[in-house]
Amino acid sequence: MPTNNDINKQEEIKVVDLINSRDWSSTCLGSLDSWEPSFRNIVNLFLHSKFPTVIFCGPDLIYIYNQAYAKIQKSKHPYVLVFGRPFVETYPEHFDYVKSRYERIKSTGKGIFEKDVRFIQYYDDYEEENYISYTMSPIFKEDGTFWAMSNVCDFTTHKVLVERRIKTLSVLANRINDANSLENACHIIMKSFRENDKDIPFTLIYLIDSDKLRSGFQPRAAHLISTTFNYKDLYNKNWDIPDNLLETHKTINLIENPDENYDLYIEVKRSTTKHLFLKCKSWPVHLVVKEDKDIKVLLKDGSQAMLFPIKASYGGELILSSILICGINPNCELDNDYTNFLRSVVTYVSTTITNGKQREEERKQVEMQTDLNRQKLKFFQHISRELLSNDQIS
What we know:
Layout: H1 4-11, H2 15-21, H3 37-47, E1 53-57, E2 62-65, H4 67-70, H5 87-90, H6 92-108, E3 112-122, E4 127-140, E5 146-155, H7 157-174, H8 182-195, E6 203-213, E7 216-227, E8 251-253, E9 265-269, E10 274-279, H9 285-291, E11 295-298, E12 304-314, E13 317-327, H10 336-393
Parallel strand pairs: 10-11
Antiparallel strand pairs: 1-2, 1-5, 3-4, 4-5, 6-7, 6-13, 7-8, 9-10, 11-12, 12-13
Helix pairs in contact: 7-10, 8-10
């Protein structure tokens, strides 16, 4: 198994050196000396291109790429010697997709352009979501017959993820003033997440019931109020919670101590990130309340989620109003961009809940004032009748 240093050293290997050192006679291309001058020129052109470029040669789709493409190969370049091998041996998960386009270009002689195509890249212990825009073009022999297919590509993963996350935040922002109560705010939030579930596959929200003390607010209980699992009826509390999630209690007593210690953390590494995830039986709501910070957890199937404390303004001070649980896309790295997106989500959720709570309080105040006015009216009407009756008697 290669170490990080081994991989870094391998990445320093120049693709041009791989071209010259490869025994091409064992492939359908034949020895390097036998390559047609036009094909050698095309390969040389692509090798020095700054754009990631791949050439698929012959019926075996021999896999040749340039230095720009090598940078996105990660541990596959060239540690498992993917360079110059049949594509089916290097990326069997993508072979059918590429082969179908190869055959199409071979039969038509025309190129293909596709934008922001989603594909899953497979690594040793995880899968990663990627997006690519590319143009595939035919390469012909000197006699005019089809020989190979070039693929000039641009990896657009960052752009697609940014646009997708901005859309989610825009939906949350547009509905920030729609809530007319605390519970209604939670359902509006869940509806937004359900319609935009690529980066947050599922969500649950617990409302915190607190006692007002002289020293502040004391959380007493957490009540599961809404999830993205009740698709047909937001107000239906019979949620169909998937089996891979942690134990999900409808009510959690925050006065009593939890039945877990919350002391087992598992380190999860990806290509550029490393995080500690809590391993536990049920959602660690107690821990979020106690530490007042977000908590990363592993689910039963190894997928991930995060719990966030949501603060809302109440009587001029910020108090813990709810706990938001967000599923993490298992095919996306939990990098700074992803984390910052989730924190922006928390901000919008907090504002929506605050607005819903304020409108609910305002409505209660109006209802109380209306009821008080009604009672006053009845009282004065009664007094008026009494006075009128006394006048008539006298």
